[in-house]
Amino acid sequence: MKRCYKCGCEKGFEFFGKNRSKSDGLATECKDCKREQDREYAKKNAEKARQRASDWYYNNRNKEEFITVSKQRLKDWRSRNLDKHAAKENKRRALKLQAMPKWLSEEQLKAIATEYALSKWCSEVMGTKYHVDHIVPLNGKKVCGLHVPWNLQVIPAKENIIKGNRYVG
Questions:
Q1: Which of 36, 95, 125, 136 is the most exposed place for a label (fewest CB within 10 A)?
Q2: Tell me: the pLDDT tens digits for 103-117?
Q3: Model-level pTM?
Q4: DSSP calls for 106-146
């Protein structure tokens, strides 16, 4: 047991973060107090905290380790939250169906199918995974696009994952 110097509560060692500079190897404040302290700092220094997070992301986003960890984290989340994942996929499918206009001609429907075939072909030939990406996302924060041939592009999966559900224009 250890006493937190901030709240004064006595808690088990698992409630304290690591700090190798301390004699017992643990931080002096509990994780809850530290979390609260970090929230207050982030509120007072919102722009600085946002800039630091943004800098870290842009410096690390293309590193294989970052991508591998991100994929593993997503895979773990899916396995723990099958119901939420299914709801998200069903919502996406419904949005995609509603984002596909009924006025599309046969040639345009074939062009959409061609994009997916091209993605598969690129994956096989290049040896890396390729995705069909919506240039304007189907359900973006600022703008919503349609599932039409001129809104589709074949890009490497790595770029598509980095882009996420954002419009980059």
A1: 125
A2: 889 999 889 888 888
A3: 0.48
A4: HHHHHHHHHHHHHHHHHHHHHSS-EEEEESS-TT-SS----
